[in-house]
C-alpha cells in the first residue's frame, strides 16, 4: 500500500522533530518534508507531492489559517490537518472555513493524531474528541441565538455587509435603499441581538456565521 505523504509544519524545530519521529513509527505514513511557517509550507506544497499537511496555527510570517486557505487554493486535493494548542471554538471554525479536514489538539494521543491524518487522506474529517463536543455546543448556541433573534432576511444581509466593513451609505447604495432605511434596520437589528454599537454587531455577525472570520 502506498504511504500517505505528510508535510509537517510548526515554527518550533523540536516540535517538528518529535512529530516526525512519532509519525515514522506508523508504516502507513511517510514524512516528505517540514516547514517552519505557513509561507514555507505553501512553497513546499507547490514543489512536492503531498497528501496531508499537518499545520500549526500560530506561526510567524504566515499563520495556519492563511496557509490553509492558500494550500487549498493551489492544491485542492491536499488535505490539511491543524495541530495546535488552541482549543477555542473560533480557531477551529476559522480553520474549517479555510478548508481544513481535521483539527487536532497537541494534547491528543499519538493514535488520535495518526487517525486524523489517515482519515483526512481518505477525504474524511476529524476533530479532537474534547473539541468536537465544544463545537457541537457552540453551533447549538449559535443556531438557538440566530432563531430567537428573529432577524429578517433583509436584516441579515445588512448585518453581513456591516460586518464586512461597509458604511451606512455604502450599504444603502448596494441594496438600493435610503440611508434612513438602513439606519432604521440597524436600530432594529441592535435591539434584536442585544448590542449597542456597530463593533459589537460585527462581532456578533462573525460568531453567528453571518460574516467571514
UniProtKB/TrEMBL annotation:
SMART domains: HTH_LUXR (SM00421), REC (SM00448). It comes from the Bacteria. The modification 4-aspartylphosphate is found at residue 56. GO terms for molecular function: DNA binding. The lineage of its organism: Bacteria, Bacillati, Bacillota, Clostridia, Thermoanaerobacterales. Keywords: DNA-binding, Phosphoprotein, Transcription, Transcription regulation. This is Stage 0 sporulation protein A homolog. CDD domains: LuxR_C_like, REC_NarL-like. Residues 5-121 form the Response regulatory domain. May play the central regulatory role in sporulation. It may be an element of the effector pathway responsible for the activation of sporulation genes in response to nutritional stress. Spo0A may act in concert with spo0H (a sigma factor) to control the expression of some genes that are critical to the sporulation process. The keyword Calcium does not apply. PANTHER family: TWO-COMPONENT RESPONSE REGULATOR (PTHR43214). One of its GO terms (biological process) is phosphorelay signal transduction system. Residues 144-209 form the HTH luxR-type domain. SUPFAM superfamilies: C-terminal effector domain of the bipartite response regulators (SSF46894), CheY-like (SSF52172).
